[in-house]
Amino acid sequence: MANLNAYVYNGEELEVSASMKEDFNRDGFIIVRNLLCQKELAILEEALQGPDSLTAYAYGNDDGDGRKATMCLWNHPGNDVTGAMARTRKLAHTAQELLGAEVYHYHSKLIMKEARTGGKFVWHQDYGYWYNFACLFPDMLTVFVAMDACSPENGCLQVLRGSHRAGRIDHGAVGNQVGADVGRVAELEKCLDKVYVQLEAGDALFFHCNLLHTSSANNSDQRRWAFLTAYNCNHNSPYAESIHCQKTTLRQLANDAVLTTGVNRNLSGKDVVMKQDGKYVTLAL
Description:
Jelly Rolls, 4-stranded antiparallel beta sheet, 29% strand
């Protein structure tokens, strides 16, 4: 298996070492194993179940092959356990250290690839979208936390190592989705290592907003759920309003905040993004 730039969380403060920064800057990503323990995963799982949970606001995106990847998306952390998780130092402070500047919560989402039906995502960069949301610089990253084991069979992420150094690539229609220029991606595939990001539940991938990534459909009998939080540097707050928020104060919490918050479904203040008639709208809760 290719080197995955993997580190292991020991349950205390997550120190961002020089080697972590070097890996992130060179390759565009690092992995932190065991970032969430089994009890934290169980709390998160329970909080996302039921008609009063965030999953009530989920919507599906057709991948062009008759399958859908379902997601729910929100702009502000809010007061529930998912907000507590996004504010933990092991996510937020680590993101800040990797980017080298103070950050705020740009948005979070839950991506649900169900067994046998979960759809694919074409090659893209997050900044390929966020550039159009009035963010001037690619000073942003995403933390992908696996709620289930992620494998090639159930549609784990694939990344092109070091592709963030190619800069922002033009994005446009690729089938039924918006993705990176297919010709340019094809050339980058010839010279960069494609990595299948295989994770266990509780592992996390921190990746740069210009890192090219894709994922296949879930052809297995195992679902693939993931919790993602995007952080933006304070100095990079969008210059105009868009579907995601401008700079807000991020109050970071202790690393055990999920455990102390428990199963909390109080969705007030989250500003959920919904898809209606092909357009994105925000719903203040």
